Amino acid sequence: xxxxxxxxxxxxxxxxxxxxxxxxxxxxxxxxxxxxxxxxxxxxxxxxxxxxxxxxxxxxxxxxxxxxxxxxxxxxxxxxxxxxxxxxxxxxxxxxxxxxxxxxxxxxxxxxxxxxxxxxxxxxxxxxxxxxxxxxxxxxxxxxxxxxxxxxxxxxxxxxxxxxxxxxxxxxxxxxxxxxxxxxxxxxxxxxxxxxxxxxxxxxxxxxxxxxxxxxxxxxxxxxxxxxxxxxxxxxxxxxxxxxxxxxxxxxxxxxxxxxxxxxxxxxxxx
Length: 271
Fold this sequence. Notes:
The longest helix has 14 residues. The relative contact order is 0.20. Helix 3 links the parallel strand 5 and strand 6. The chain contains 9 helices and 9 strands. It has a 6-stranded parallel sheet, with helices on both faces. A 3-stranded mixed sheet has the order 1-3-4. With 271 residues, it is an alpha/beta fold. The protein has one domain: Rossmann fold, CATH 3.40.50.1820. This is Peptidase S9 prolyl oligopeptidase catalytic domain-containing protein.
């Protein structure tokens, strides 16, 4: 499940924005539980890691855009770890998302970090992360049982890999600790290179000695505040982006999920 308190922590990143300048939207993904204090809410449906979850985020953003005073087609997404991947994938599919903040999210399920992770899942040596059982149930187990062909498996992994759609990303701000032992720092580095090669805009900050926690990334919140602050009505009055209504609030979508027998043909190559 996802605790509301976790993404609310990130409000410190937008502390310079007044409450009437943005709308904070927290998704409750299908099949998962959202908790706040002693209360919890469970969404209907079957868990769909980094796939149906993106559909849920898109639906929620479009619902938020229908609220009075919210600028239609104007949003930013941010997320931590698995939520960072969701934030990136959402921006790839929705042109109304104009900025993304990614904290140490996975970006490429055909790279060495992900391939090692998938092999460890197959060998029953997976790390203790909340997203691992979901990835195993939705992708790995069906492949092992022969329910997914190799071609279908490639597609499943491809649509979860923001790297391969880097040319569709808006402006990106990324944070990653160099001592992160959960998601390899190479996941951010390779995305940064791909975005720049595609002619896009990405700022990436790497933090010496820092691990897989936003609390370790000194200065990350102030950098995020400056990055998102460019969308504030005050900033737009100075230099308003084309086709954006500076009188309306914009939607800020927070997605926070910090979470030896190998099958023949695994891991599947991208080509």
